[in-house]
Design a protein that fits this description.
15 strands, 481 residues, 14% strand, alpha/beta, binds uridine-5'-diphosphate, seven-stranded parallel sheet, single chain, six-stranded parallel sheet
Length: 481
């Protein structure tokens, strides 16, 4: 609380991508449930996704609301209505999208001056918010949307540049000064990690790092027990101020809340549960690559054949949607859906991911290793096949396979922007079976279930994340007195 007469008011400003909006909404709801007044700032076309997700919190009497600012799509050279990364259709549009995001500074400052919140939690993609908030003496917290492990790994990569000391893109190097020996190759690094060129996106990352140094601290969607060595490393060795308050997805307790995250699902909650209810515990593998990654049709075909060959039951989320019933989906092997009837379910579009993962029938997860998906997999206690594509997903893969030992890699070698590397059907079949059947799968499942139990405890009263959130709220409250 800010004071007896004035509850703490916090602005949340998520980047316009589902992987950033979804956890920020959960986070705002967590703060609101502790008596904070939470305002989520977004753009008109993103607002409906948020209002749907905060309905229940409002009904419970907590104070959470939305403020919108106009997104200058057309002014920045984007098509009208392009306000979310999921409507970006080619990598060339990313630059314009970032330009539009930077143009929000002025209207955002107007909101700050009008409402004067006590704190701002803003996404790393809005580096200018630190100074904007400072003008009004408002502390800014940074939200990266990733783990402490990957924050440490990327910082040590930047500091020590081990990738410049190998002679080829496929030669592995160790990232120095980390609690574990983490090996990567140059091929697995993002474009921005490995180039010294001053590109727009590199400039943005640089500004983001500099703004972070002037910020109040960092809030992380993770829990101490999951990565304590890295939580300590981040604070004590790298000298950062951070609060871990996750897994934030665990604030979605009932099926309705779980089914309502993000976009409108392409399957009803009822239909989805009916399908899953008919399956035995741990018998279904769930395959989903997040909200941004896309695969060419040739890769979708390999996945279909690999899944069928594995003999496992599955739910597979395919982002490509059919325009109409007659649409031929050339990538589907002849008669695939007929043969898979009752055994495999394809969801075209958006799936209620947490609802699915938390169902006892689901026993494995093929994931692109976006941090939200990874942590949702951990929270559901399922072993994973790791299939990183871009962003910091190769770091998350290391954490799952090497440190937590709850997954196996499908064998991706190369970081690519948005469109995945090609993996053969045999590798898919093998990896799926590795996490679903046999002794190794059982061991991974046991470890994953143990982590899921600890995750639940972390967010309950007295748990590590619960307590860290409390101390953050108290610290911000005392700042207001
Ligand atoms: N998600 C979902 N249904 C889908 C695809 C994604 O609910 O069909 C959610 C998923 O649960 C996660 C988020 O969208 O919370 C994706 O974030 P992540 O960090 O995993 O990946 P990104 O989309 O940022 O690559």
């Amino acid at each position: 609380m800010g004071s007896a007469s004035h509850p703490l008011h916090i602005f949340f400003f998520p980047f316009f991508a589902h992987g950033h909006m979804i956890p920020t909404i959960d986070m705002a709801r967590l703060f609101a449930a502790r008596g904070v007044v939470a305002t989520i700032v977004t753009t008109p076309l993103n607002a409906p996704l948020i209002s749907k997700a905060i309905q229940k919190t409002i009904t419970l009497g907590y104070k959470i609301n939305i403020q919108t600012i106009k997104f200058p799509s057309v002014e920045a050279g984007l098509p009208e209505g392009c306000e979310n990364v999921d409507s970006i259709t080619s990598p060339n549009m990313i630059g314009n999208f970032m330009k539009a995001a930077a143009m929000l500074q002025e209207p955002f400052e107007q909101l700050l001056s009008e409402y004067h919140p006590d704190c701002l939690v803003a996404d790393m993609f809005f580096p200018w918010t630190t100074d904007a908030a400072a003008q009004f003496d408002i502390p800014r917290l940074v939200f990266h949307g990733t783990s402490l492990f990957s924050l440490c790994a990327s910082e040590c990569l930047r500091l020590y540049e081990p990738h410049k000391k190998v002679s080829s893109d496929s030669e592995s190097f160790v990232i120095p000064n980390l609690p574990d020996e983490i090996r990567l190759t140059r091929m697995q690094l993002s474009d921005f990690d490995k180039t010294d060129e001053v590109t727009d996106i590199n400039k943005l990352f640089k500004e983001s790092r500099e703004a972070e140094k002037r910020s109040y601290g960092v809030v992380v969607n993770s829990f101490y027990e999951l990565e304590h060595a890295y939580a300590d490393h981040y604070r004590e060795v790298l000298g950062r101020k951070a609060w871990h308050i996750g897994p934030v997805s665990l604030c979605n307790r009932d099926n309705e809340e779980k089914a309502q995250r993000g976009k409108e699902a392409s399957i009803t909650e009822h239909e989805c549960l009916k399908w899953l209810d008919s399956k035995k515990p741990n018998s279904v593998v769930y395959i989903c690559f997040g909200s941004v990654a896309n695969f060419p049709e040739s890769q979708l075909r390999e996945i279909a054949i690999g899944l069928e060959a594995s003999g496992q039951e599955f739910i597979w989320v395919v982002r490509k949607s059919k325009h109409n019933e007659e649409d031929k989906e050339e990538w589907l092997p002849e008669g695939f859906e007929k043969r898979m009837e009752g055994k495999g379910l394809i969801i075209r579009g958006w799936a209620p991911q947490v609802l699915i993962l938390d169902h006892e029938a689901v026993g494995g997860f093929v994931t692109h290793c976006g941090w939200n998906s990874t942590l949702e997999g951990v929270s559901a206690g399922v072993p994973m096949v790791t299939w990183p594509v871009s962003a910091e997903q190769f770091y998350n893969e290391k954490q799952v396979t090497q440190i937590l030992k709850i997954g196996v890699g499908v064998g991706v070698q190369k970081w690519v922007r948005m469109v995945g590397d090609s993996i053969k059907k045999e590798a898919i079949e093998k990896a799926v079976n590795q996490i679903m059947v046999g002794e190794e799968a059982e061991e991974m499942r046991n470890r994953a279930k143990a982590l899921a139990d600890i995750a639940r405890l972390a967010v309950e009263a007295g748990g590590s994340s619960y307590s860290d959130l409390n101390s953050l709220i108290q610290e911000l409250g005392s700042r207001c007195h």
